[in-house]
Amino acid sequence: MIEFNRVSKRYPGGREALLDINFKVEAGEMLFLTGHSGAGKSTLLKMIPLIERPSGGEIIVDGRALNKYKRRQVPQLRRDIGIIFQDSKLLADRNVFDNVALPLLVSGDNHPRDVGRRVRAALDKVGLLKREHDFPIQLSGGEQQRVGIARAVVNRPKVLLADEPTGNLDPELSREIMSLFEQFNQVGVTVLVASHDLELISSMRKRMLILRGGRLLADERGAM
Ligand code: ADP
Q1: How far apart are CA 56 and CA 32, in angstroms?
Q2: For residue 207, what are the β-bridge partners?
């Protein structure tokens, strides 16, 4: 589903943020990306939906090399990829329903009846069906993050990427969010989560890619 071949990334004026990164993620896998702050986790994730382009090497997502995508085709790639950030990036002036509906409205090819059905299905999966009329400010941090997850899955993406999704949450809420990701993985979604919280992700017993200073230090298979 995701393949990195000798990928490197240098930001304009900066040093190498990533160097010679090689790994392969099979469809339906769930794994973690870890390393200290500045190790390159965000940069690596951002290259998968083409938020950033690599400076060298090749990335293949769902069988297609990313350097083959023209700018106007990028939305097509992003429809298949759900992204979750540390702060849920909800729109404060829209209610929960409208925030989750946003990706469907952007892609524009959904009948209003389908939008309602899919938004409620996504909210149901994250346990927030009853909060559709609330505004983000009325929700706790954990609930806001769950709305962010509902928004990321409303298009039924093949791949779910999360960048420090539990960075602002206490340990118990963090485990809840991780088990939500596990549930999406169990129905076939490929899930890649970046987190520096080694204790939390070790407890998940999944594969771990460990970055240090832009290099892939280890690719550890989780104990079953
Ligand atoms: P992490 O997510 O592991 O904290 P990042 O991918 O954010 O790491 O950063 C990796 C390196 O790239 C750091 O040295 C960081 O300063 C640099 N970097 C990240 N984003 C940019 C950018 N937009 N422009 C220049 N340098 C950047």
Answers
A1: 23
A2: 31
The residue whose CA has the least distance to atom 10 of ligand 1 is 40
- The closest-lying atom of ligand 1 relative to the alpha carbon of residue 163 is 2
Question: Two tokens at 69?
Answer: 């995508």
pLDDT in tens, 96-125: 999 999 999 887 777 888 999 999 999 999
Predicted confidence at residue 36, as pLDDT, reads: 94
CA angle 46, 51, 52 (to 5 degrees): 75
CATH hierarchy code of domain 1-80+159-224: 3.40.50.300
Please report, for the chain, the start and end positions of each structural domain, with discontinuous segments joined by +: 1-80+159-224, 90-156
Q: Which of 9, 21, 42 to mutate to test the pocket of ligand 1 (most atoms within 8 A of CB)?
A: 42
Q: Could you give the C-alpha distances from 76 to 71, 85, 162, 182, 194, in angstroms and in order? A: 10, 20, 19, 25, 24
What separation in Å is there between the alpha carbon of 198 and the centre of ligand 1?
Answer: 20
**125 Cβ closer than 6 Å to some ligand 1 atom:** no
pTM of the model: 0.94
Of 210, 211, 204, the residue nearest 180 (C-alpha): 204
